[in-house]
Amino acid sequence: MSVHNVSTSDSGRDGQVYDVIGIGFGPANIALAIALEELGFAGTRLFLERQGSTKWQPQMMLSGSDIQNHPSRDLVTPRNPRSRYTFTNFLFENDRLFEHLNLGLEFPLRSEFAEYVRWVAGFFAKDVVYNQAVTSIQADPVSNLYCVTTQTGSKFFARSLVVAPGRTPVIPQVFTDCAADQVFHLTQYLGRLAQLAQQRELKRVAVVGGSQSAIEIMLHLRHSYPHLEIINIQRGYGFRLKDTSQFSEHVYFPSFVDQYYNSSAEAKKNINRHLHYTNYSAADADVISELYVGMYEEKLQGKNRTTIKSFRDIQACTATGHSYSLTLLDTQAGTTEQLPELDAVVLATGFRNLGAGAQDERFPSILRDLAESLDCDAQGVIRIGRDYRLSARAGCNLPALYLNGLCESSHGYGDAGSFSLLSLRAREIFTSLSEQLGLEDAAEKIA
What we know:
Blueprint: E1 17-18, E2 20-23, H1 27-38, E3 45-48, H2 87-93, H3 97-103, H4 110-122, E4 128-129, E5 134-140, E6 145-150, E7 155-158, E8 160-163, E9 183-185, H5 189-199, E10 204-208, H6 212-224, E11 229-233, H7 254-261, H8 265-275, H9 285-300, E12 306-309, E13 312-320, E14 323-330, E15 336-342, E16 344-347, E17 400-403, H10 408-411, H11 422-436, H12 440-446
Parallel strand pairs: 1-7, 2-3, 2-8, 3-4, 8-17, 9-16, 10-11, 10-16, 11-12
Antiparallel strand pairs: 5-6, 6-7, 13-14, 14-15
Protein name: Lysine N6-hydroxylase/L-ornithine N5-oxygenase family protein
GO biological process, one term: intracellular iron ion homeostasis
Pfam family, one: Lys_Orn_oxgnase
């Protein structure tokens, strides 16, 4: 554990010690901010956000893309349908309710939901400090306080922390040494693509992956660059339809969290095996159909600008002048081929989960200074309580610490980046946090 002798003279806000500091102010901690307000949190709070403003998926604001979950599964409705912070009230207060209802869409547009997230965040501006990327988190065993240091050199002190860092992109090993301006993850998509397009005409782009995001990117490229050749590379046979059965969707019910959390490791593997395609390596029917029809129409016109390379593993990614070349292994035939002259390679390769696998991480990197003090399993993966609290290992002591998100490995698919259970998770963290800080009686009186 990193030990810091606390002196509030160099703190970020007049030496104040906060009851709780939230790291990150995306949807997870925005939902928590709402819960703290509506449930009557009796302590002081502050949120630190690395960006200059609240932005939700800014690099994937693609025309026509939607959010893939019911609009009532927003930042607050499952916990408090009467809240002013619901998506429905956002539409009402912005004089768009009837127009939105008239759209007939099953799911809201991603751009509108991003606006909703920004709208809610604006109500809590007094509790947020932006442009504060956290560089270290230290704990002082004497004062029992956390010291959070940011890239500006500011230090913030708190009796407890709620960490919501977001998910870490998966960059396959074969791409780690490539130039980031031409080979990039979908979390950098729009910005990097625009920069390349300004430098030269884009002629050939590869999209790696078989997910919803991969199709959305391919559709965006087809519509935005009419003469561009697009090559999709995936390990599977083709784009698979997402499992959206009403029975499978029970993974986003509160009761499933208890079932999953209390299951053995082997039982969790079995659940994951059966429910994998509710959230991974699959896409919605509308985008699959749009891509398929578009490719068919190209054939009618004698064109072949969109290609899907199935059952392929990427063996190498090599820079050749101003472009890149991929070496592909056909896993069925055992043969290799070259895919040369690529202006860009877009990685729709997903995100890391907590775990001990090759593409997992044992703890979020933001907790690296505390890692030696955290309770872990036999494989070194942090243990997460049912209330999302991280405990200290035997012989160590840590103030209250919570992980708001990234808990799919312990709590199930509702914690896999979906909005579905954000508000209920926020309530559980509020309840536990108030108890840990000795504020539960005050919260009950306010409520």
